[in-house]
Design a protein that fits this description.
Strand content: 15-25%
Structural class: alpha/beta
Number of domains: 1
Order of helices and strands: HEHEHEEHEEHHEHH
CATH topology: Maf protein
Shape: globular
Largest sheet: 7 strands, mixed
CATH architecture: Alpha-Beta Complex
CATH class: Alpha Beta
Radius of gyration: 17 Å
Oligomer: single chain
Number of helices: 8
Distance between the termini: 10 Å
């Protein structure tokens, strides 16, 4: 698929995340956005690598009836994994504090699952990034949570905010994946999807 044709791909973004929309728009796409209304629970015995793919597919299929013409649904889900424990979005301030305390001084993985879905075909893929934090004091954790209110973010933090700038020691892998969408991988997968 040519570059100009790829950017004209009509995308239905199944996400309420302003970061996913921003990444797609910065990449040249113009998504139509409908946040899916889904219960983001998953089978207890599911492995951490399977969970975001399962949830992304669930979100995509919820919006199948909303497709217009030749739109491609793009749905994604991100989780944070530390010491085999899955961290999703925090329930409240206390939960956010507990999550950041767990991540303090540790290396964790951010796994994003993506589902591309049209009336004719389906493609799923995932990306894992590794993030190492410096130690966080209780004061720093409370400052970050009270100022940035990361309640819509897996693991209770945004890499593009204060915590990302000041407390991340190193990153291995895709930066945009930590924001919620592995944009380079998604770009190339959309190209393949259009050629199928």
């Amino acid at each position: 698929m040519s570059f100009s044709k790829l950017l004209e791909t009509p995308i239905l973004l199944a996400s309420g995340s302003p970061r996913r929309r921003y990444l797609l728009e910065e990449a040249g796409f113009t998504p139509r956005v409908i946040p899916p209304d889904v219960d983001e629970t998953y089978p207890e015995m599911m492995s951490p690598t399977e969970v975001p793919l399962y949830l992304a597919k669930l979100k995509a299929k919820t919006l199948l009836k909303e497709i217009r013409n030749n739109e491609t649904i793009l749905a994604a889900d991100s989780i944070v994994v530390v010491n085999d424990l899955i961290l999703g979005k925090p329930d409240d301030r206390a939960d956010a504090i507990q999550m950041l305390t767990l991540l303090s001084g540790q290396t964790h993985q951010v796994i994003t699952g993506v589902c591309l879905l049209s009336r004719e075909q389906e493609m799923t893929f995932s990306c894992t990034s590794e993030v190492s934090f410096y130690s966080l004091t209780n004061t720093e954790i409370e400052y970050y949570i009270d100022r940035f209110k990361p309640y819509d973010k897996a693991g209770s933090y945004g890499v593009q905010e204060w915590l990302g700038w000041c407390k991340i020691r190193s990153i291995k892998g895709s930066y945009s994946n930590i924001m919620g969408l592995p944009m380079a991988m998604t770009y190339h997968k959309l190209q393949q999807f259009g050629d199928l």
